[in-house]
Write a structure and sequence with these properties.
Length: about 200
Amino acid sequence: MVEQTPINIQALVDLLNRQQPDTLSEMQQRYPDQTGLLQPGKRLGNEPAVYDKLLVDLLISSISSAKQECHQAYHQVSSRLKSSARFRLGSTLLSSAASGGLVGALLQGASQVALAAGILTFLSSSTLLIAQYIEDYAGGQKSLREIRDRVVAFMTETTTVEGEIKIMELRGTWKEAETLVRQLNAVVAAIRQIQLTM
């Protein structure tokens, strides 16, 4: 007999605990012998075996919340990107105006105005560097654009899992439930990590 790798369902359980605590309570009542697995938070030690029926129930219960988490993460990252772009645009406009003022002041021979324009140019260049840093090193991770691309990939993956669930429901067979639970659990864990670092 081949020993199977234990299934990690903790991210899905934590997701249900955050977004659908009543559903998690119902599952704990339906599967009293699996209550240890259905507790939120990290646990030490080996994972006990999971029933197929529990996996199916977990998939069906958590897919909508997983999609919702992906959409929230996408909006969070997109909002940061837009703010950074606005910040960058403002600094660029300020730099352009200050540069024009500097040229005008030098042509007129006004050294005080030239000094003020030079200071403004320096400040706008500094804010441009800050915007670049915010965009490229968000939360100690990769650039915001790369994070957004990862979130979009996760959104696609959850939609694919949802489609597979519907196909399995129509067929009346749940052979791939374990694979989908592993896939969805990994997506939810990665999305949560992104949310916590933003």
